[in-house]
Amino acid sequence: METLRTERLLLRPWTLDDTDFIFGLYSLWAVQQHIGLHPRVMTDRAEAIAVIKHWAGMEHPIHAVRAVTDADTGEIFGNLLLKSIPASSPVAPLEPSGDTEIGWHFHPNAWHNGYATEAAAAVLAEGWKTGLDRVVAVTTPSNRPSQRVCLRIGMTHQGRTDQYYNSVSELFVVDAPES
């Protein structure tokens, strides 16, 4: 995975040194309430270690989950993910849909600073350079802040869908710019 830099941010791979941040982030209901069909907070530091190891093991030329940090201080703000999104299905585990999803999870202390928009725009730009032609994002219907980020990075709201994650979500889509 390539490290990306923006004016204010460094988007880099997660390491086990980041375990305390991940545990703290996903232990917050304010963060978790919009993630997954049955949101729950992380209760064990071992879960954070497993998540980081999973992200580090993603072997894909484009897909990655990156730590979003202050480019100058290294302070971690959250994460930016570009990954395969699972299709809804009555059979578990869910299988890939064939679409690529962009998403973000930020610590509340980092909200309202434009970090998600800045990081997502950088990841999309990198994705277009590496051959992606379409990216989707899904949010819970009540997650207005993430919906605004989707619009700010050029995504179009397509309405509600149940085609991903076995849940009803707001769907946003963006196609690669024409060269």
From TrEMBL:
Cross-referenced SUPFAM superfamilies: Acyl-CoA N-acyltransferases (Nat)
The keyword Transferase is annotated on this UniProt entry: yes
GO molecular function, one term: acyltransferase activity, transferring groups other than amino-acyl groups
Keywords assigned: Transferase
Coiled coil: none
Annotated Gene3D superfamilies: 3.40.630.30
UniProt KW Transferase keyword: yes
Pfam family, one: Acetyltransf_3
Record-annotated N-acetyltransferase domain positions: 9-177
Protein name from the UniProt record: N-acetyltransferase
